[in-house]
Amino acid sequence: MALIEVSSMVKQFPMGTGMFTALKNINLVFSKGEFTGIVGPSGSGKTTLLNILGSLDTQTEGEVKVMDNEVSKLSHKAAAQLRSKQIGFIFQTFNLLPHYTVFENVEFPLLLLNIAPDKRRKMVLESLEWVDLTDKIKSKPRQLSGGECQRVAIARAMVKRPSIVLADEPTANLDADNSYHVLRTMKKLNEELSTTFIFSTHDYKVIEYLNRKITLRDGQIASDENLV
Predict the structure, then answer these.
(1) Which end of the chain lies in a sparser environment, N or C, as judged by fewer CB atoms within 10 Å?
(2) What is the per-residue pLDDT for 105?
(3) What is the dihedral of CA 114, 119, 125, 128, to 10 degrees?
(4) 8 A C-beta contact, residue 142 and residue 105
(5) What residues in the chain have per-residue pLDDT under 70?
(6) Whole-angstrom distance between the N-terminal and C-terminal Cα of the chain?
(7) Could you give the number of structural domains in the chain?
(8) Taking the CA atoms of the chain, what radius of gyration do you get in angstroms?
(9) What's the pLDDT score for residue 16?
């Protein structure tokens, strides 16, 4: 089942008096249950591509369909609804709300979906159980290690059971032990819930876990390999 389809996609940005082409002739299909990495050096277009797949940005040319929605034709409200219901995000800087507890950080996406309090609590506790942090529900981010913060971010991304999780360099700020811990957590969720994970990364530790590796070079697909 194709969740994302990218056809002849080009992305350009204004630069001086001309245009800079960040991505060119991108053709990709992502299916349910993938654990895929978009890899390549800095400036290759990884984050730009991830932002378009997450409807945070739109392409200049071509077509990008996410859950049968053409991204460039969505209104701001419709794009926000798509993200809130179907897409989870994990960032390298965690992006947790510093003055809120672990429970409240994970609960936040559910507040946007107007889910009833009792159901919200059940979903949050289940999500924190997935990442082995039920003993930290009253802690604030400053009381957690970097690895624990990233596991909270995973719980927040997964709490609404999205079809797609987009992770932008999720291990960049973690040491090796914590990197492997969060990777095992994400891989387990991928296998148990069939959630599609798509990473932007150049971390070899992430690449070890991938089922598919897409390499970008100078804004183009240099290779697309199945690793299993």
Answers:
(1) C
(2) 97
(3) -40
(4) no
(5) none
(6) 18
(7) 1
(8) 17
(9) 87
Alpha-carbon gap, residue 122 to 167, rounded angstroms: 25
- Residue in the block written with tokens 């797609």: 164
Helix (H, G, I), strand (E, B) or coil at 106: helix
Order of strands, edge to edge, in the sheet holding 35-39? 87-91, 164-168, 196-201, 35-39, 212-217, 220-226
Question: Residue 158 has which token pair?
Answer: 């997964």
**Structure tokens, 109:** 């996406």
Are 197 and 34 a contacting pair, CB within 8 Å?
A: yes
Query: How far is residue 191's CA from residue 187's CA, in Å, rounded to a whole number?
Result: 6
Task: Classify residue 5 by burial, with Cβ atoms within 10 Å: 0-12, 13-18, 19+.
Answer: middle
Q: Which residue has the tokens 């070890």?
A: 208
What confidence score (pLDDT) does residue 149 get? 94
Residue pointed to by tokens 């997450």: 54
Tell me: the pLDDT tens digits for 70-116?
A: 999 999 999 999 999 999 999 888 899 999 999 999 999 999 898 99
| Dist CA 132 CA 31 (whole Å) | 28
Q: For residue 59, what is the domain's CATH number?
A: 3.40.50.300
- The CA-based angle 37-38-41, given to 5 degrees, is 125
Range of the domain at 155: 2-226
Instruction: Report the 10 Å Cβ neighbour count for 15.
Output: 10
- Dist CA 131 CA 181 (whole Å): 9
Specify the pTM. 0.93
Q: How far apart are CA 205 and CA 213, in angstroms?
A: 13
Q: Are 87 and 162 in contact (CB under 8 A)?
A: yes
Which element (helix H / strand E) includes 58?
Answer: none
